[in-house]
Automatic annotation (TrEMBL):
Keywords: Bacterial flagellum, Cell membrane, Cell projection, Chemotaxis, Cilium, Flagellar rotation, Flagellum, Membrane. CDD domains: FliM (cd17908). FliM is one of three proteins (FliG, FliN, FliM) that forms the rotor-mounted switch complex (C ring), located at the base of the basal body. This complex interacts with the CheY and CheZ chemotaxis proteins, in addition to contacting components of the motor that determine the direction of flagellar rotation. This is Flagellar motor switch protein FliM. It is found in: Bacterial flagellum basal body; Cell membrane. Belongs to the FliM family. GO terms for cellular component: bacterial-type flagellum basal body; plasma membrane. GO terms for molecular function: cytoskeletal motor activity. It comes from the Bacteria.
């Protein structure tokens, strides 16, 4: 038979339950802690500092190339870096239109290839301008023909020459077009899951604008990836400036300059001037002990004394004038 509790025992049990400790609350630090989402299938292989350095590098390229392309097409071209991101090669291909000018670029001596993709909205504008038009596009976008691809090749080669100069402080890369296609699905330079760096250039010409993509697989950049950083770019930029000054001075060493010395003046009538003959002597309005002005390419730079060295007329620089 079950034991029946008395009223006193029931009261004791109820009072014991009321004295039990309440569950402890979690510390505020644990509650407020932020969690960063990380996808282990798509690790960031290029640091934010390297992405920033690549953007600075190609900002400089965009300025140089816009000037060169403006002169080449004889019209005003504006080029800006729209973005620099890392993504998978499959995502890059999906982001392109189906009628893109797809140029495969060899990056010798690096192992692998890159991509320069010109979207049709700006590609046809460039073709029209190269063929003597005002730079207009078609209403209905269609795939590029082989002839149009060869015309755009001039633009791509012009772009590659500037890219070679911009990348020279990091690595001597020889950019060369190895294939041209009109569809991004025809050529696959790496596996779709491989991470690539995508530099997107926005090109403006008149009322038209479009995109040129420059894609480089990270696996191709790995041998020189450690050289790409904001600090290294800054030191390279300073070194380039010093080298450029030295090069300019070396070039100027061989430049010929016209030197003229002003000896003095005198007044003469037109009749006497027309009757001048050898051994005629006229007195200048200047003493022999006065300074003579020396002009370099028409600009007064020095004052000098007149004299003679080994039976040859000469001047001795006395002071610099401004």
């Amino acid at each position: 038979m079950a034991e029946i509790l008395s009223q006193e025992e029931i009261d004791a049990l109820l009072s014991a339950i009321g004295k039990e400790e309440a569950p402890q609350e979690l510390p505020e630090t644990l509650i407020e802690e932020k969690v960063s989402i990380y996808d282990f299938k798509r690790p960031d292989k290029v640091s934010k500092e390297q992405i920033r350095a690549l953007k600075n590098l190609h900002d400089k390229f965009a300025r140089n190339f816009s000037s060169k392309l403006s002169g080449f097409l004889r019209t005003i071209i504006e080029i800006d870096v729209a973005s620099v991101d890392q993504m998978t090669y499959g995502e890059f291909v999906l982001s392109l239109s189906q009628s893109v000018s797809f140029n495969v670029i060899n990056l010798y001596p690096l192992e692998g290839s890159g991509i320069i993709a010109i979207e049709p909205d700006i590609g046809f504008v460039l073709i029209d301008r190269l063929l003597g038009g005002f730079g207009t596009t078609f209403q209905n976008i269609r795939p590029f023909t082989d002839i149009e691809q060869s015309i755009l090749l001039d633009i791509v080669n012009l772009m590659l020459s500037d890219l070679k100069n911009i990348w020279a402080p990091i690595a001597e890369i020889r950019f060369e077009v190895t294939a041209q296609e009109t569809s991004p699905n025809v050529v696959q330079i790496v596996a779709p899951s491989e991470v690539v760096v995508l530099i997107v250039f926005e090109v403006k010409m008149g009322d038209y604008k479009g995109i040129i993509n420059f894609c480089i697989p990270v696996i191709t950049l790995e041998p020189i990836l450690t050289k790409i950083s904001t600090h290294d770019m800054l030191s390279i930029s300073r070194k380039e400036h010093v080298n450029r000054v030295v090069n300019i001075l070396q070039i100027l060493d061989n430049v010929l300059m016209r030197i003229e010395v002003y000896l003095g003046d005198f007044n003469i009538s037109v009749e006497n001037f027309l009757n001048l003959k050898p051994n005629d002597i006229y007195i200048l309005h200047k003493n022999t002990n006065e300074f003579s002005e020396v002009y370099c390419n028409g600009v007064k730079k020095f004052e000098a004394k007149l004299g003679k060295v080994k039976n040859k007329k000469a001047i001795k620089i006395a002071k610099l004038t401004f």
